[in-house]
Specification:
The protein is mostly beta strands. It is 9% helix and 35% strand. It has four domains: 26-100, Immunoglobulin-like (Sandwich); 106-242, TonB-dependent receptor, plug domain (Ferric Hydroxamate Uptake Protein, Chain A, domain 1), CATH 2.170.130; 248-270 and 347-420, no CATH class; 272-341, no CATH class. The chain has helices at 2-23, 130-134, 141-144, 226-229, 298-301, and strands spanning 26-34, 45-48, 54-56, 62-68, 72-76, 83-86, 94-96, 107-109, 115-117, 125-129, 152-156, 165-169, 182-185, 188-190, 196-197, 200-201, 214-220, 237-242, 252-262, 331-334, 340-343, 357-369, 373-385, 392-405, 410-419. The strands form eight sheets. A five-stranded mixed β-sheet has the order 10-17-18-13-14.
Length: 420
């Protein structure tokens, strides 16, 4: 009887442990996100609740994410109600998003700081909170808008971390070379011009802005928005409103710290069947008189050393150089340094020339104010250690903003100090 009880207890224990292990197993979740009309939605963000695991839907509305049975997926998108879905029991299927009715009563900032209800505007406008942008840890604020606003296309330059990025709203609207919108920062107009010289990309002034100081960013679409800022705004307007100090007792202090790790994972596709030879030159028989029509060309790459009697990798000095090698089958050959090595493929060995990148943003802000004036001071230090072996970029940005109000009007002063 006792043995029977022990066996039952052991079986229950095994079942309990097995169920716990199954609950912690990670499985791949996939599906398609659609609107109420059944059309696929692109740019919808799917995040595991409480975790820093996110993905977005592609142009067909499809997504894929790895999650545990205990996880909860949070779906968010501009103009749609946030939705939470339990992974447990979820079958790979369609998900329908509901249009948010609250967007009809949103208040947005237009020209010269004037606020209006969104439904009163004669043009399309989308507003993104600054807190949502600062989470991306991007060096260039333009890149942070990627996938957050419908109809906005971001083209990240290839000039490095501090390189320029271009933005298009609803595609090209003119036949000219400049189809980018203007940027308005607290009423000051800026162009997204690129600074370059001698083939170098030095980026633009927008990279020197601190996203932690953004209250919100509004995208004014269409030529109707040009009525606010003139013909310069024919391609649209990116309106940035920065944070101001608030009336309080004492001085308020806020600290934000974010860390990012970049890992190279993909590159060009190489063949791993034949050796690379020595140079990328086109080869024909008649350029090398020592080749005979019926000769096996492999012997030109792996000749036999008369001293050791072993094949070796030919340096191919004083004659035509091949742009391919023999088939890599793990042959034992003598290397250039005299040691024996296997002639085997090394897939993705170019990734060895890179290291993991590291990014760090540290922002400290102080603000205070009375019923007549407010001030806000912030300083941010950005460190980006990029993929290459030796480059580390550091940017320090100090911003001081002073806002004074009186019975007759108000004045705002902002000072930016940049050290790169």
């Amino acid at each position: 009887m006792k043995n029977c009880k022990r066996r039952i207890i052991l079986m229950l224990g095994f079942l309990l442990v097995g169920s716990m292990m199954m609950a912690q197993q990670v499985r791949k979740i996939s599906g398609v996100v659609r609107d109420g009309a059944g059309l696929p939605l692109s740019g919808i963000t799917i995040q595991l609740k409480g975790k820093n695991v996110t993905t977005t839907t592609d142009d067909r509305g499809a997504f894929s994410i790895s999650a545990q049975e205990s996880d909860v997926m949070v779906l968010t998108g501009v103009g749609f109600v946030s939705q939470e879905i339990n992974v447990a029991g979820f079958k790979n299927s369609d998900i329908t998003m509901t249009v948010s009715r609250n967007t009809l009563n949103e208040v947005v900032v237009t020209a010269l700081g004037v606020t209006k209800q969104k439904k009163e505007l004669g043009y399309s406008v989308t507003t993104v909170k600054g807190a949502d942008l600062s989470k991306t840890n991007e060096l260039n604020p333009i890149n942070a808008l990627q996938g957050r606003v419908a109809g906005v296309q971001i083209d990240q330059g290839a000039g490095g971390l501090f390189g320029n990025s271009k933005i298009l709203i609803r595609g090209n609207s003119t036949l000219g070379t400049n189809n980018q919108p203007i940027f308005v920062i607290d009423g000051v107009i800026m162009d997204n011009d690129v600074f370059s010289g001698n083939g170098r990309d030095f980026g633009n002034d927008l990279k020197n802005l601190n996203m932690d100081d953004f209250e919100n960013v509004s995208i004014l679409k269409g030529s109707a928005a040009a009525a606010l800022y003139g013909t310069r705004a024919i391609n649209g307007v990116v309106l940035i409103t920065t944070k101001k100090g608030s009336q309080r007792k004492g001085i308020g202090v806020s600290v934000n710290q974010s860390l990012t790790v970049f890992q190279p994972f993909k590159g060009p596709t190489f063949q791993n069947e034949f050796g690379g030879g020595t140079v990328g030159a086109f080869f024909t028989d008649n350029r090398e008189p020592n080749y005979k029509p019926d000769e096996n060309w492999t012997t030109k790459v792996f000749p036999i050393d008369p001293v050791t009697g072993k094949p070796y990798i030919d340096r191919q000095i004083y004659r035509e150089l091949e742009n391919w090698g023999p088939r890599m089958l793990g042959q034992e050959v003598q290397n250039y340094d005299g040691t024996m090595t296997k002639y085997s493929p090394q897939p993705n060995n170019f990734l060895d020339a890179f290291q993991n990148g590291f990014g760090s943003n540290t922002n400290v802000a102080m603000d205070a104010g009375t019923d007549r004036s407010t001030f806000r001071f912030s300083i941010i230090t950005t460190i980006q250690k990029v993929f290459t072996l030796i480059i580390t970029l550091t940017k320090t940005l100090s911003i001081f903003a002073l806002h004074i109000r009186s019975m007759t009007g108000s004045i705002s002063i902002s000072v930016h100090l940049i050290q790169t």
